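Bumping my old thread because nobody answered last time. Still need a sequence for this structure:
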């Protein structure tokens, strides 16, 4: 958005058309020689359109454009930057995302569960500008991908870089919950929330899911668990990032509903089933509503003056006009 600090000075622009007329079109201005005769029966002398005329016209346009920009610069143009500043701290949220091979199943409207989940998570993150959000992913191992941050663009960029099976070929749900809960341990926010998304059964890892849920409950962290995908036979397609080998297969392995439900109930949260990308979006919208807080904010307005830039452009145009008239057209000023 743009702003003019002294808009009344823009009224000087009204004088420019009058000055143009006086300099270039007024017959009494003395800029041309007039002959006291004319050729009978003809239109008189009319110069054609030549490179000289085009160059002169260009220099005239540059001159008056430069004059107009000088007026605008004197009026004080500025770029307006508006920023919302939150006065209250939001909720601390950790996203725990399954990246085991089964997340390559293509039952999310023809795309992989993993890609659909990341797209919906991105929408969820963008709708929580005041919350610090982190990311943990898990397969055979669990890893912190992004600590709690309000720089959501950096978080989403990091999430887009991730690939299925970077952490192995298992499903360590308990380890994923434990890693995320431990990173919420030092949180000073009034509420701490963990959102678990998985399509498989815990089959590896050091910590069992029920033990991880107890840990989260002791730390006051609510764990919303979401079972992703259908329970029917579905195809999967992915490339192992470690070997470059492509895998295509049919599978019929679903998540453990009782296990995911138990995790949520242990921590005082809710368990959901997401058989499609649309359903997952509705679930995260519901969680967004459940975990809402009062958000007081103010708008900070900062003006960035740009009159120096405008003056430089005006100077270049005026210098161009001067050089054309003196160096090329050989006019005597």
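Sorry it took so long. Here it is:
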């Amino acid at each position: 958005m743009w702003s003019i600090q002294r808009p009344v000075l823009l009224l000087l622009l009204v004088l420019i058309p009058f000055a143009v007329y006086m300099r270039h079109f007024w017959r009494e201005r003395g800029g041309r020689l007039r002959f006291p005769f004319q050729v009978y029966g003809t239109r008189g002398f009319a110069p054609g359109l030549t490179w000289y005329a085009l160059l002169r016209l260009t220099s005239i346009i540059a001159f008056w454009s430069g004059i107009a920009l000088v007026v605008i610069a004197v009026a004080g143009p500025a770029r307006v930057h508006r920023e919302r500043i939150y006065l209250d701290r939001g909720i601390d949220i950790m996203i725990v995302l399954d990246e085991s091979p089964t997340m390559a199943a293509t039952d999310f409207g023809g795309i992989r569960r993993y890609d659909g989940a990341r797209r919906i998570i991105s929408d969820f993150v963008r709708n929580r500008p005041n919350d610090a959000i982190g990311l943990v992913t898990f397969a055979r191992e669990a890893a912190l991908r992004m600590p709690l941050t309000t720089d959501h663009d950096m978080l989403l960029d990091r999430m887009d870089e991730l690939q299925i099976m970077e952490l192995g070929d298992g499903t360590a749900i308990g380890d994923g919950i434990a890693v995320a809960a431990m990173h919420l341990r030092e949180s000073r926010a009034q509420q701490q929330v963990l959102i678990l998304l998985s399509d498989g059964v815990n089959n590896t890892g050091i910590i069992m899911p029920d033990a991880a849920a107890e840990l989260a409950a002791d730390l006051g962290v609510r764990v919303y668990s979401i079972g992703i995908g259908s329970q029917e036979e579905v195809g999967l397609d992915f490339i192992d990032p470690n070997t470059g080998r492509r895998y295509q297969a049919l599978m019929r392995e679903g998540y453990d509903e009782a296990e995911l439900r138990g995790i949520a109930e242990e921590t005082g949260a809710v368990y959901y089933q997401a058989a499609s990308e649309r359903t997952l979006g509705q679930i995260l919208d519901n969680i967004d509503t459940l975990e809402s807080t009062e958000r007081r904010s103010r708008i900070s307005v900062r003006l960035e003056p740009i009159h120096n830039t405008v003056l430089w452009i005006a100077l270049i145009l005026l210098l161009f006009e001067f050089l054309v008239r003196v160096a090329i057209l050989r006019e005597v000023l």
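The mean pLDDT is 85. Let me know if any region looks off to you.
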